[in-house]
Amino acid sequence: MRPEESSGDGIGASPPRRRRLWTKLAIAGVATAVAAPMLTACGSDYDEGVINMYAAADGFDYISEVAQRCSDDSNGEYRIAMNMLPKEADMQRLQLARRLAGNDAGLDLMAMDVVWTAEFADAGWVVRVPDDLAAKTRQTNLPGPLATAEWEREDDAGKSLYAIPLWANSQMLWYRPDLMKDTIDTTKAPTTWQGMLDDAAKIKDAGGPAAILLQAKQYEGLMVWFNSLLQSAGGEILDPDDPTKVTLTDTPEHRAATVEALTVMRRVATAPGADPSISNSDEGTARTDMEAGKGAFEINWPFVFAGIKENGAAGEAKIMGDSLTQFKEIIDATADDPTDPRIAKVNDATRKNFSFAAYPGIAGAGTAKSTPGGFNVGVASTSKQQDLSFKAASCLTDAQAQKVYAVRGGTPPTIESLYNDAEFQLAYPMYEIVRRQLDEGAAPRPATPRYQDMSTAITATLSPVGQWDPESKADELARVSQDAIDGEGIVP
Protein backbone atom coordinates (compact mmCIF):
# COMPACT_ATOMS: atom_id res chain seq x y z
CA MET A 1 0.00 0.00 0.00
CA ARG A 2 1.43 3.38 -0.16
CA PRO A 3 4.76 5.02 -0.91
CA GLU A 4 7.67 2.97 0.33
CA GLU A 5 9.58 4.50 3.16
CA SER A 6 7.84 7.79 2.85
CA SER A 7 4.11 7.90 3.34
CA GLY A 8 3.25 6.30 6.60
CA ASP A 9 2.60 2.70 5.82
CA GLY A 10 4.86 1.86 3.00
CA ILE A 11 3.31 -0.34 0.44
CA GLY A 12 2.40 0.77 -2.94
CA ALA A 13 3.44 3.98 -4.51
CA SER A 14 6.44 5.01 -6.47
CA PRO A 15 9.55 4.73 -4.29
CA PRO A 16 12.01 7.54 -4.95
CA ARG A 17 14.92 6.18 -6.94
CA ARG A 18 17.62 8.35 -5.45
CA ARG A 19 17.97 11.30 -3.14
CA ARG A 20 18.19 13.71 -6.05
CA LEU A 21 14.85 12.32 -7.20
CA TRP A 22 13.39 12.89 -3.73
CA THR A 23 14.34 16.54 -4.21
CA LYS A 24 12.94 16.59 -7.74
CA LEU A 25 9.66 15.12 -6.54
CA ALA A 26 9.43 17.71 -3.79
CA ILE A 27 10.09 20.57 -6.21
CA ALA A 28 7.56 19.17 -8.66
CA GLY A 29 5.06 18.93 -5.82
CA VAL A 30 5.46 22.56 -4.88
CA ALA A 31 5.12 23.72 -8.48
CA THR A 32 2.08 21.58 -9.16
CA ALA A 33 0.40 22.55 -5.92
CA VAL A 34 0.44 26.16 -7.07
CA ALA A 35 -1.27 25.29 -10.33
CA ALA A 36 -3.69 22.71 -8.94
CA PRO A 37 -6.96 23.54 -7.22
CA MET A 38 -7.12 23.43 -3.46
CA LEU A 39 -7.86 19.83 -2.52
CA THR A 40 -9.67 20.57 0.69
CA ALA A 41 -12.62 22.18 -1.07
CA CYS A 42 -15.14 20.20 -3.05
CA GLY A 43 -16.60 21.86 -6.11
CA SER A 44 -19.26 20.81 -8.56
CA ASP A 45 -18.05 22.50 -11.74
CA TYR A 46 -16.14 20.87 -14.55
CA ASP A 47 -14.65 21.92 -17.86
CA GLU A 48 -15.72 19.93 -20.88
CA GLY A 49 -12.78 17.97 -22.26
CA VAL A 50 -10.62 18.57 -19.17
CA ILE A 51 -10.05 15.30 -17.30
CA ASN A 52 -8.98 15.90 -13.72
CA MET A 53 -6.61 13.22 -12.46
CA TYR A 54 -5.80 13.02 -8.74
CA ALA A 55 -2.63 11.19 -7.71
CA ALA A 56 -0.27 10.95 -4.74
CA ALA A 57 2.92 13.00 -4.47
CA ASP A 58 5.25 10.03 -4.99
CA GLY A 59 5.44 9.26 -8.68
CA PHE A 60 3.40 12.36 -9.52
CA ASP A 61 5.93 13.78 -11.94
CA TYR A 62 6.01 10.59 -14.00
CA ILE A 63 2.22 10.42 -14.25
CA SER A 64 2.26 14.08 -15.23
CA GLU A 65 4.76 13.34 -17.98
CA VAL A 66 2.59 10.55 -19.34
CA ALA A 67 -0.54 12.68 -18.97
CA GLN A 68 1.00 15.29 -21.23
CA ARG A 69 1.76 12.65 -23.86
CA CYS A 70 -1.77 11.27 -23.64
CA SER A 71 -3.26 14.74 -23.95
CA ASP A 72 -1.14 15.49 -27.00
CA ASP A 73 -2.00 12.17 -28.62
CA SER A 74 -5.73 12.73 -28.13
CA ASN A 75 -5.65 15.47 -30.82
CA GLY A 76 -7.70 17.82 -28.73
CA GLU A 77 -10.28 15.29 -27.58
CA TYR A 78 -9.23 15.73 -23.95
CA ARG A 79 -6.60 17.29 -21.73
CA ILE A 80 -5.54 15.60 -18.49
CA ALA A 81 -5.15 18.09 -15.65
CA MET A 82 -3.02 16.71 -12.80
CA ASN A 83 -3.94 17.34 -9.15
CA MET A 84 -1.64 16.30 -6.32
CA LEU A 85 -2.92 14.44 -3.28
CA PRO A 86 -1.03 14.40 0.04
CA LYS A 87 1.91 12.09 0.61
CA GLU A 88 0.21 10.15 3.42
CA ALA A 89 -2.09 7.35 2.30
CA ASP A 90 -4.78 8.03 4.90
CA MET A 91 -4.98 11.65 3.83
CA GLN A 92 -5.17 10.63 0.17
CA ARG A 93 -8.12 8.39 0.93
CA LEU A 94 -9.79 11.02 3.10
CA GLN A 95 -9.57 13.77 0.52
CA LEU A 96 -10.85 11.53 -2.26
CA ALA A 97 -13.71 10.31 -0.05
CA ARG A 98 -14.73 13.88 0.74
CA ARG A 99 -14.87 14.81 -2.93
CA LEU A 100 -16.72 11.66 -3.89
CA ALA A 101 -19.23 11.97 -1.07
CA GLY A 102 -19.72 15.59 -2.07
CA ASN A 103 -20.54 14.64 -5.68
CA ASP A 104 -17.62 16.67 -7.00
CA ALA A 105 -17.96 16.76 -10.79
CA GLY A 106 -14.41 18.06 -10.99
CA LEU A 107 -13.06 14.64 -10.02
CA ASP A 108 -12.70 12.31 -13.02
CA LEU A 109 -9.74 9.98 -12.45
CA MET A 110 -7.96 8.93 -9.28
CA ALA A 111 -4.95 6.84 -8.39
CA MET A 112 -6.27 4.32 -5.87
CA ASP A 113 -4.26 2.28 -3.41
CA VAL A 114 -4.69 -1.40 -4.22
CA VAL A 115 -6.69 -2.04 -1.03
CA TRP A 116 -9.32 0.63 -1.72
CA THR A 117 -11.08 -1.11 -4.60
CA ALA A 118 -13.76 -2.94 -2.63
CA GLU A 119 -14.56 0.05 -0.42
CA PHE A 120 -14.81 2.53 -3.30
CA ALA A 121 -16.78 0.12 -5.51
CA ASP A 122 -19.24 -0.82 -2.77
CA ALA A 123 -19.79 2.84 -1.95
CA GLY A 124 -20.59 3.53 -5.59
CA TRP A 125 -17.63 5.91 -5.89
CA VAL A 126 -15.97 4.22 -8.89
CA VAL A 127 -17.44 3.09 -12.17
CA ARG A 128 -17.10 -0.48 -13.44
CA VAL A 129 -14.56 -0.71 -16.25
CA PRO A 130 -16.33 -1.15 -19.63
CA ASP A 131 -16.32 -4.68 -21.01
CA ASP A 132 -13.99 -4.02 -23.95
CA LEU A 133 -11.38 -2.25 -21.83
CA ALA A 134 -11.77 -4.84 -19.06
CA ALA A 135 -11.12 -7.66 -21.54
CA LYS A 136 -7.98 -5.94 -22.82
CA THR A 137 -6.79 -5.30 -19.27
CA ARG A 138 -7.30 -8.92 -18.24
CA GLN A 139 -5.45 -10.12 -21.34
CA THR A 140 -2.35 -7.99 -20.79
CA ASN A 141 -1.92 -7.69 -17.01
CA LEU A 142 -0.44 -10.10 -14.48
CA PRO A 143 -2.85 -11.93 -12.13
CA GLY A 144 -1.66 -10.35 -8.87
CA PRO A 145 -2.28 -6.73 -9.87
CA LEU A 146 -5.52 -7.70 -11.60
CA ALA A 147 -6.88 -9.22 -8.41
CA THR A 148 -6.38 -5.92 -6.58
CA ALA A 149 -8.62 -4.13 -9.11
CA GLU A 150 -11.55 -6.55 -8.81
CA TRP A 151 -14.67 -6.54 -6.69
CA GLU A 152 -18.13 -8.10 -6.88
CA ARG A 153 -20.98 -5.84 -5.88
CA GLU A 154 -24.43 -7.19 -5.16
CA ASP A 155 -25.58 -6.11 -8.61
CA ASP A 156 -22.64 -7.78 -10.40
CA ALA A 157 -22.89 -11.20 -12.01
CA GLY A 158 -19.36 -11.96 -10.87
CA LYS A 159 -16.09 -10.24 -10.06
CA SER A 160 -15.70 -7.09 -12.14
CA LEU A 161 -12.86 -4.67 -12.72
CA TYR A 162 -13.48 -1.38 -10.98
CA ALA A 163 -10.03 0.01 -11.75
CA ILE A 164 -7.09 -0.47 -14.12
CA PRO A 165 -3.64 -1.35 -12.73
CA LEU A 166 -1.19 1.56 -12.88
CA TRP A 167 1.89 -0.05 -11.33
CA ALA A 168 2.66 -2.78 -8.83
CA ASN A 169 5.27 -3.69 -6.24
CA SER A 170 6.56 -6.84 -4.58
CA GLN A 171 8.85 -7.43 -1.62
CA MET A 172 11.97 -9.55 -1.93
CA LEU A 173 14.72 -11.06 0.17
CA TRP A 174 17.89 -8.96 0.29
CA TYR A 175 21.08 -10.52 1.58
CA ARG A 176 24.86 -10.14 1.81
CA PRO A 177 26.78 -12.72 -0.27
CA ASP A 178 30.13 -11.50 1.09
CA LEU A 179 28.99 -11.94 4.70
CA MET A 180 27.57 -15.39 3.99
CA LYS A 181 30.74 -16.48 2.22
CA ASP A 182 32.95 -15.28 5.06
CA THR A 183 30.86 -16.78 7.87
CA ILE A 184 29.05 -19.89 6.58
CA ASP A 185 30.92 -20.60 3.34
CA THR A 186 28.00 -20.15 0.94
CA THR A 187 26.55 -17.37 -1.17
CA LYS A 188 23.26 -19.14 -1.82
CA ALA A 189 20.26 -17.27 -0.41
CA PRO A 190 17.84 -19.22 1.80
CA THR A 191 14.50 -20.10 0.23
CA THR A 192 12.42 -20.47 3.41
CA TRP A 193 11.97 -18.50 6.63
CA GLN A 194 13.35 -21.35 8.68
CA GLY A 195 16.34 -21.58 6.37
CA MET A 196 16.91 -17.85 6.84
CA LEU A 197 16.69 -18.21 10.62
CA ASP A 198 19.14 -21.13 10.52
CA ASP A 199 21.60 -19.17 8.37
CA ALA A 200 21.29 -16.12 10.62
CA ALA A 201 22.08 -18.26 13.67
CA LYS A 202 25.17 -19.66 11.96
CA ILE A 203 26.29 -16.19 10.95
CA LYS A 204 25.90 -15.05 14.57
CA ASP A 205 27.93 -18.00 15.82
CA ALA A 206 30.66 -16.95 13.39
CA GLY A 207 30.64 -13.42 14.80
CA GLY A 208 28.46 -11.67 12.25
CA PRO A 209 25.18 -9.74 12.52
CA ALA A 210 22.14 -12.00 12.79
CA ALA A 211 19.14 -9.67 12.52
CA ILE A 212 16.43 -10.20 9.92
CA LEU A 213 15.37 -6.65 9.11
CA LEU A 214 11.78 -6.04 8.02
CA GLN A 215 8.58 -4.10 8.75
CA ALA A 216 6.93 -4.92 12.07
CA LYS A 217 5.76 -1.77 13.77
CA GLN A 218 2.01 -1.23 14.19
CA TYR A 219 1.11 -0.12 10.67
CA GLU A 220 0.27 -1.56 7.25
CA GLY A 221 3.75 -3.02 6.80
CA LEU A 222 2.99 -5.45 9.62
CA MET A 223 -0.22 -6.46 7.85
CA VAL A 224 1.77 -7.14 4.68
CA TRP A 225 4.21 -9.37 6.55
CA PHE A 226 1.45 -11.36 8.24
CA ASN A 227 -0.55 -11.73 5.03
CA SER A 228 2.48 -12.96 3.07
CA LEU A 229 3.36 -15.52 5.74
CA LEU A 230 -0.22 -16.67 6.12
CA GLN A 231 -0.77 -17.28 2.42
CA SER A 232 2.66 -18.88 2.09
CA ALA A 233 1.53 -21.32 4.80
CA GLY A 234 -1.67 -22.08 2.89
CA GLY A 235 -4.08 -19.86 4.81
CA GLU A 236 -6.32 -16.86 4.10
CA ILE A 237 -7.71 -14.09 6.27
CA LEU A 238 -11.08 -14.10 4.48
CA ASP A 239 -12.93 -16.66 2.41
CA PRO A 240 -12.26 -15.68 -1.25
CA ASP A 241 -15.85 -16.66 -2.09
CA ASP A 242 -17.42 -14.98 0.94
CA PRO A 243 -15.58 -11.83 2.08
CA THR A 244 -17.80 -11.60 5.16
CA LYS A 245 -16.30 -14.80 6.60
CA VAL A 246 -12.98 -14.87 8.45
CA THR A 247 -11.08 -18.10 7.80
CA LEU A 248 -8.15 -17.81 10.18
CA THR A 249 -9.29 -20.65 12.44
CA ASP A 250 -12.48 -22.03 10.86
CA THR A 251 -10.89 -25.39 9.91
CA PRO A 252 -7.97 -27.37 11.35
CA GLU A 253 -6.00 -26.68 8.17
CA HIS A 254 -6.61 -22.95 8.28
CA ARG A 255 -5.83 -22.79 11.98
CA ALA A 256 -2.55 -24.64 11.40
CA ALA A 257 -1.59 -22.14 8.68
CA THR A 258 -2.36 -19.18 10.96
CA VAL A 259 -0.39 -20.68 13.84
CA GLU A 260 2.53 -21.41 11.49
CA ALA A 261 2.60 -17.80 10.25
CA LEU A 262 2.51 -16.48 13.81
CA THR A 263 5.20 -18.93 14.89
CA VAL A 264 7.52 -17.63 12.18
CA MET A 265 6.88 -14.06 13.31
CA ARG A 266 7.69 -14.94 16.91
CA ARG A 267 10.87 -16.79 15.93
CA VAL A 268 12.11 -13.84 13.87
CA ALA A 269 11.37 -11.39 16.70
CA THR A 270 12.92 -13.48 19.49
CA ALA A 271 15.85 -15.23 17.80
CA PRO A 272 19.33 -14.62 19.26
CA GLY A 273 20.68 -11.51 17.58
CA ALA A 274 17.24 -10.33 16.43
CA ASP A 275 16.59 -6.68 15.72
CA PRO A 276 16.04 -5.16 19.19
CA SER A 277 13.82 -2.47 17.67
CA ILE A 278 11.75 -4.80 15.53
CA SER A 279 8.44 -3.47 16.89
CA ASN A 280 9.40 -0.01 15.62
CA SER A 281 10.79 -1.15 12.28
CA ASP A 282 9.59 -0.02 8.88
CA GLU A 283 10.90 0.21 5.30
CA GLY A 284 13.25 3.05 6.15
CA THR A 285 14.82 1.52 9.26
CA ALA A 286 15.29 -1.81 7.49
CA ARG A 287 17.09 -0.11 4.61
CA THR A 288 19.38 2.07 6.73
CA ASP A 289 20.19 -0.67 9.23
CA MET A 290 21.09 -3.08 6.43
CA GLU A 291 23.37 -0.52 4.78
CA ALA A 292 24.98 0.10 8.18
CA GLY A 293 25.84 -3.58 8.60
CA LYS A 294 23.33 -4.36 11.35
CA GLY A 295 21.53 -7.19 9.57
CA ALA A 296 22.16 -10.50 7.88
CA PHE A 297 18.97 -10.41 5.80
CA GLU A 298 16.35 -7.84 4.83
CA ILE A 299 12.78 -8.07 3.58
CA ASN A 300 11.95 -4.96 1.60
CA TRP A 301 10.74 -3.46 -1.66
CA PRO A 302 13.05 -3.10 -4.69
CA PHE A 303 13.71 0.60 -4.05
CA VAL A 304 16.55 -0.42 -1.70
CA PHE A 305 18.72 -1.52 -4.63
CA ALA A 306 18.82 1.93 -6.23
CA GLY A 307 19.33 3.50 -2.82
CA ILE A 308 22.37 1.46 -1.87
CA LYS A 309 24.01 2.16 -5.22
CA GLU A 310 23.81 5.91 -4.67
CA ASN A 311 24.79 5.71 -1.02
CA GLY A 312 27.56 3.27 -1.84
CA ALA A 313 28.94 5.57 -4.53
CA ALA A 314 29.03 8.36 -1.95
CA GLY A 315 30.79 6.08 0.55
CA GLU A 316 27.81 6.16 2.91
CA ALA A 317 26.80 2.47 2.83
CA LYS A 318 29.03 0.66 5.30
CA ILE A 319 28.49 -2.81 3.87
CA MET A 320 29.71 -1.66 0.45
CA GLY A 321 32.96 -0.21 1.77
CA ASP A 322 34.54 1.73 -1.09
CA SER A 323 33.55 -0.82 -3.72
CA LEU A 324 31.14 1.54 -5.45
CA THR A 325 32.94 4.85 -5.13
CA GLN A 326 34.72 4.17 -8.41
CA PHE A 327 31.30 4.13 -10.11
CA LYS A 328 30.08 7.48 -8.77
CA GLU A 329 30.37 9.19 -12.14
CA ILE A 330 28.37 6.44 -13.85
CA ILE A 331 25.72 6.37 -11.12
CA ASP A 332 25.33 10.15 -11.27
CA ALA A 333 25.21 10.14 -15.07
CA THR A 334 22.60 7.38 -15.22
CA ALA A 335 20.32 8.69 -12.45
CA ASP A 336 17.82 9.85 -15.05
CA ASP A 337 18.72 7.21 -17.63
CA PRO A 338 18.94 3.79 -15.96
CA THR A 339 18.88 2.11 -19.39
CA ASP A 340 22.46 3.25 -20.04
CA PRO A 341 24.44 0.00 -20.63
CA ARG A 342 27.09 1.13 -18.15
CA ILE A 343 24.66 0.55 -15.29
CA ALA A 344 25.03 -3.23 -15.73
CA LYS A 345 28.59 -2.99 -14.45
CA VAL A 346 27.41 -1.15 -11.36
CA ASN A 347 24.65 -3.68 -10.72
CA ASP A 348 27.13 -6.56 -10.88
CA ALA A 349 29.50 -4.83 -8.47
CA THR A 350 26.67 -4.05 -6.05
CA ARG A 351 25.45 -7.63 -5.97
CA LYS A 352 28.79 -8.87 -4.62
CA ASN A 353 27.91 -7.30 -1.27
CA PHE A 354 24.14 -6.75 -1.54
CA SER A 355 22.00 -9.01 -3.66
CA PHE A 356 18.41 -10.16 -4.01
CA ALA A 357 16.40 -13.36 -4.07
CA ALA A 358 12.77 -14.43 -4.10
CA TYR A 359 10.55 -13.89 -1.08
CA PRO A 360 11.10 -16.83 1.31
CA GLY A 361 8.46 -19.50 1.72
CA ILE A 362 7.22 -21.87 4.39
CA ALA A 363 8.84 -25.30 4.22
CA GLY A 364 6.48 -27.92 2.83
CA ALA A 365 3.70 -25.42 2.05
CA GLY A 366 4.28 -24.94 -1.68
CA THR A 367 4.90 -21.70 -3.54
CA ALA A 368 6.06 -18.76 -1.47
CA LYS A 369 3.60 -15.86 -1.56
CA SER A 370 4.41 -12.17 -1.47
CA THR A 371 1.85 -9.40 -0.93
CA PRO A 372 1.69 -7.01 -3.90
CA GLY A 373 1.54 -3.27 -3.50
CA GLY A 374 0.84 -0.59 -6.05
CA PHE A 375 -1.81 1.72 -7.41
CA ASN A 376 -4.76 1.41 -9.76
CA VAL A 377 -6.64 4.07 -11.72
CA GLY A 378 -10.38 4.42 -11.20
CA VAL A 379 -13.01 6.55 -12.92
CA ALA A 380 -15.07 8.49 -10.38
CA SER A 381 -18.83 8.05 -10.42
CA THR A 382 -19.07 11.82 -9.90
CA SER A 383 -17.44 12.48 -13.29
CA LYS A 384 -19.65 13.99 -15.99
CA GLN A 385 -17.23 12.67 -18.63
CA GLN A 386 -16.89 9.00 -17.82
CA ASP A 387 -16.40 7.71 -21.37
CA LEU A 388 -13.67 10.26 -21.99
CA SER A 389 -12.15 9.50 -18.60
CA PHE A 390 -11.83 5.82 -19.50
CA LYS A 391 -10.01 6.80 -22.70
CA ALA A 392 -7.58 8.84 -20.63
CA ALA A 393 -7.24 6.05 -18.05
CA SER A 394 -6.46 3.55 -20.79
CA CYS A 395 -3.65 5.79 -22.04
CA LEU A 396 -2.25 6.45 -18.54
CA THR A 397 -1.97 2.69 -17.93
CA ASP A 398 -0.84 1.41 -21.34
CA ALA A 399 2.52 -0.25 -22.02
CA GLN A 400 4.20 2.99 -23.07
CA ALA A 401 3.10 4.66 -19.86
CA GLN A 402 4.04 1.76 -17.62
CA LYS A 403 7.52 1.65 -19.12
CA VAL A 404 8.03 5.24 -17.99
CA TYR A 405 6.84 4.41 -14.47
CA ALA A 406 9.02 1.30 -14.37
CA VAL A 407 12.26 2.45 -15.96
CA ARG A 408 12.40 5.99 -14.63
CA GLY A 409 10.14 5.74 -11.59
CA GLY A 410 11.34 2.38 -10.34
CA THR A 411 7.91 0.76 -9.95
CA PRO A 412 7.28 -2.72 -11.43
CA PRO A 413 4.85 -2.81 -14.34
CA THR A 414 1.64 -4.80 -14.27
CA ILE A 415 1.64 -5.49 -18.03
CA GLU A 416 3.37 -8.82 -18.51
CA SER A 417 4.95 -8.10 -21.91
CA LEU A 418 7.11 -5.33 -20.44
CA TYR A 419 9.09 -7.92 -18.52
CA ASN A 420 10.56 -8.98 -21.87
CA ASP A 421 11.67 -5.43 -22.69
CA ALA A 422 15.48 -5.23 -22.81
CA GLU A 423 15.67 -1.68 -21.44
CA PHE A 424 13.41 -2.54 -18.54
CA GLN A 425 15.48 -5.63 -17.75
CA LEU A 426 18.65 -3.53 -17.69
CA ALA A 427 17.12 -0.92 -15.40
CA TYR A 428 15.40 -3.53 -13.21
CA PRO A 429 17.70 -6.55 -12.78
CA MET A 430 15.31 -8.25 -10.35
CA TYR A 431 12.61 -8.32 -13.05
CA GLU A 432 12.20 -12.10 -13.32
CA ILE A 433 11.66 -12.57 -9.59
CA VAL A 434 9.13 -9.74 -9.49
CA ARG A 435 7.26 -11.14 -12.49
CA ARG A 436 6.89 -14.54 -10.80
CA GLN A 437 5.79 -12.94 -7.55
CA LEU A 438 3.12 -10.91 -9.32
CA ASP A 439 1.95 -14.06 -11.06
CA GLU A 440 1.66 -17.38 -9.22
CA GLY A 441 3.46 -15.94 -6.18
CA ALA A 442 1.04 -13.07 -5.53
CA ALA A 443 -0.79 -12.88 -2.19
CA PRO A 444 -3.22 -9.94 -2.50
CA ARG A 445 -4.57 -8.63 0.75
CA PRO A 446 -8.19 -9.63 1.39
CA ALA A 447 -10.75 -7.64 -0.58
CA THR A 448 -13.41 -6.13 1.66
CA PRO A 449 -15.08 -2.73 2.03
CA ARG A 450 -14.04 -2.93 5.70
CA TYR A 451 -10.37 -3.42 4.90
CA GLN A 452 -9.13 -0.35 6.79
CA ASP A 453 -10.89 -1.41 9.99
CA MET A 454 -9.76 -4.99 9.65
CA SER A 455 -6.12 -4.09 8.98
CA THR A 456 -6.06 -1.69 11.90
CA ALA A 457 -7.49 -4.37 14.21
CA ILE A 458 -5.05 -7.03 13.04
CA THR A 459 -1.92 -4.89 13.33
CA ALA A 460 -2.95 -3.66 16.78
CA THR A 461 -3.46 -7.27 17.87
CA LEU A 462 -0.08 -8.38 16.48
CA SER A 463 1.92 -5.57 18.07
CA PRO A 464 4.38 -5.87 19.74
CA VAL A 465 5.48 -8.71 17.49
CA GLY A 466 6.32 -12.01 19.08
CA GLN A 467 5.26 -11.13 22.61
CA TRP A 468 2.47 -13.68 22.55
CA ASP A 469 1.60 -17.35 22.16
CA PRO A 470 0.77 -18.25 18.53
CA GLU A 471 -2.08 -20.59 19.49
CA SER A 472 -3.99 -18.09 21.59
CA LYS A 473 -3.10 -15.22 19.27
CA ALA A 474 -4.71 -17.09 16.36
CA ASP A 475 -8.02 -17.14 18.21
CA GLU A 476 -7.74 -13.47 19.12
CA LEU A 477 -6.96 -12.51 15.52
CA ALA A 478 -9.96 -14.44 14.25
CA ARG A 479 -12.21 -12.66 16.74
CA VAL A 480 -11.02 -9.11 16.10
CA SER A 481 -11.02 -9.67 12.34
CA GLN A 482 -14.61 -10.89 12.35
CA ASP A 483 -15.65 -8.00 14.58
CA ALA A 484 -14.09 -5.56 12.11
CA ILE A 485 -15.81 -7.18 9.15
CA ASP A 486 -19.13 -7.11 11.01
CA GLY A 487 -18.63 -3.49 12.03
CA GLU A 488 -18.53 -4.38 15.70
CA GLY A 489 -16.10 -3.65 18.48
CA ILE A 490 -13.80 -0.70 18.93
CA VAL A 491 -11.25 -0.04 16.21
CA PRO A 492 -7.86 0.53 17.91
Question: What's the β-strand tally?
Answer: 13
* Weakly predicted, low-confidence segments: 1-10, 12-41
**What is the count of structural domains?**
2
Counting copies of identical and different chains, the oligomeric state is: single chain
Structure description:
- By secondary structure, the chain is an alpha/beta fold.
- The chain has two domains: 19-169 and 371-437, D-Maltodextrin-Binding Protein, domain 2 (3-Layer(aba) Sandwich); 170-357, 3-Layer(aba) Sandwich (D-Maltodextrin-Binding Protein, domain 2).
- It has 20 helices and 13 strands.
- It has helices at 19-35, 60-73, 89-101, 117-122, 131-140, 143-148, 177-184, 193-205, 220-232, 252-270, 283-291, 303-313, 328-333, 343-350, 386-396, 399-407, 422-427, 431-437, 451-462, 470-486, and strands at residues 50-55, 79-84, 109-113, 150-151, 160-161, 164-170, 172-175, 211-213, 238-239, 242-246, 295-300, 355-357, 372-379.
- The strands form four sheets. The chain has a five-stranded mixed sheet with strand order 2-1-3-13-6. Strands 8-11-7-12 form a four-stranded mixed sheet, with helices on both faces. A two-stranded antiparallel ribbon has the order 4-5.
- β1, α2 (60-73) and β2 (79-84) form a beta-alpha-beta unit.
- The two termini are 20 Å apart.
- The model is unreliable at 1-10 and 12-41 (pLDDT under 50).
